[in-house]
Amino acid sequence: MSTHDKYSHLPLYAKGPLKCALKGQALLDSPLFNKGSAFTKEEREKFGLNGMLPAAVHTLDQQVERAYQQYSERSTALGKNTFLNSLKDQNLTLFFALLWQHVGEMYPIIYTPTEGEAIEQYSRLFRRPDGCFLNIDEHTSRSSIASILKQFGGEGDIDYIVLTDGEEILGIGDQGVGGIGISVAKLVLMTLCAGVWPNRTLPIVLDCGTDNKSLLNDAAYLGLRHPRVRSSRYNSFIDDVVQSIKSTFPTAILHFEDFGLGNARRLLEIYSEQLPCFNDDIQGTGAVTMAAIHAACQVSNVELKDARVLIFGAGTAGTGVADQFVDALLTEGLEVGEARGGVWLVDKSGLLTTFSEEPTEAQKPYLRKSVEWEGKDTTALEKLISEIKPHILIGCSTSPGAFTEKAVREMAKHTPHPIILPLSNPTRLIEAKPEDILKWTDFKALVATGGPFDPIPIPNSSDDDGNLNENDERKYVVAECNNATIFPAIGLSLILTRSKLLTPPLLATAVKALSLEAPCVKQNDKKAALLPDITDVRDISVKVAVKVIRKIVGEGLARVDDIPEDEEELEGWVRGQMWDVSTYRDLEAVDAERVKEALEEGGEAAGSGGCLGIAG
């Protein structure tokens, strides 16, 4: 018996046959079950496919090769994105197999920066709906929302939901109903990076109107044509949606995505004690950034508790990073006030102090005493750096070029290996290009970015003793602070344990687990990347999930019994429940009428984790 076979009784066991009640055209129309030209002769006979496919039987690898050729013929990034979305609607296994074989190349196509362009063009590119559309004008009651949600599955059918209202998308702002694209893209990453079953996820967009005038004036726009609804009506709508999700899918994880600055943190704080929920813009960005900081501090011999952090950009992402930094210090025994004392926030008006006008609730804990800054320049970044002498400079501002040569050189004056993380996305909005940061610091800086950058040649590199390596052909690998290296793993751990909540200690556990996988830490090399590469993400997700699951069990949050205690066995338990991106599963034919009866009775015969295909 293999390691995986011992877990074949689990509802999410992902290695055995899929029960399938579909036949003929209905089967070919199902992205989950369709294999296209890979259906064997026996399957074609069993499932009524004779005469519906060309004679040749191809392997998945052959299909991937053909699909990659078709993909490569698209001349633009947006064209490639559209091709991949079309493929996803036809054959999920082929879609994910293609992505995984070319993940480094295709990640920027399926997510940032290309997905941002696809979302901007959503109404013009629209072909078919993908996900759940809840609009505030048709909201009449909580029960009406629940009845809509029930069209997407029963109580145990949905594991992970990505919910957005489309107000603040990927640095491109209010995109209204087009925000569904970010929910879909995030769920693709959940499957690609952590093996979450794609048919057990649900993308939702809340259409509350839009303040984007170009959309309101666009005849092709598919959303509500009025300004955004806010205040009590908006809050009531959100609450009814969340409570309907809780009642309809009681074990599902709720992932908030790209809500506006005024709502993102507020909603997370309201609902984080009611159900396991997550905000990637706040917690995901903060967690992956903290993992890079952990790794950088370790190789540069800076104690985290002694580090000073200057965060340029104090919106959702910036305050999220600040909160994760404080949470990390709390786990090391510092008091809250002491932990916050190492963080300085800067927004458009300069350093945030008690004199700052209308700070957000998220910013208030980090306001510096204005009396301490009387007569000092609180607007020029290089002056702030000179005064604060931070070890770490983080950019979340979407202000291109904000990290000037003067500012970066000032960083290098007071710390031998400044940690500089320009994180703004898309890359055209980055605070400084990594090659410039490295050049201005004589390649002494430790750099990670929010988007992808090519490795940078190291000219006549030297070791820490100043000895030149004139023949060194090494390159500095710029780590991408890619949320996909952490949020899918966190989601997977919550799903597999049916965790009651997502708490700060669970996030801190994920951060530390990810930082230990950083090449710079594993190789003890300052010139190596501060974070693992996206091409290693599935193995990384398993390692992170194992650590988080053990914490969930230790915190008494798990609602699943018999979770293995041994770490190696737990890894097998996790892998056995991850959806495979590299092979077709066998299909087991079942009778549609028997399945319908079982579903109506709620019996175990419905099994296979809600994967049955039933011809309607």
UniProtKB/TrEMBL annotation:
One of its GO terms (molecular function) is malate dehydrogenase (decarboxylating) (NAD+) activity. (S)-malate binds at N425, N482. Gene3D superfamilies: Malic enzyme, N-terminal domain, NAD(P)-binding Rossmann-like Domain. It comes from the Eukaryota. Residues 282-553 form the Malic enzyme NAD-binding domain. Residues 88-272 form the Malic enzyme N-terminal domain. GO terms for cellular component: cytosol; mitochondrion. Keywords: Metal-binding, NAD. The active site is at Y111 (proton donor), K186 (proton acceptor). SMART domains: malic, Malic_M. Belongs to the malic enzymes family. PANTHER family: MALIC ENZYME-RELATED, NAD-DEPENDENT MALIC ENZYME, MITOCHONDRIAL. This is Aminoacid dehydrogenase-like protein. It comes from Ascobolus immersus RN42.
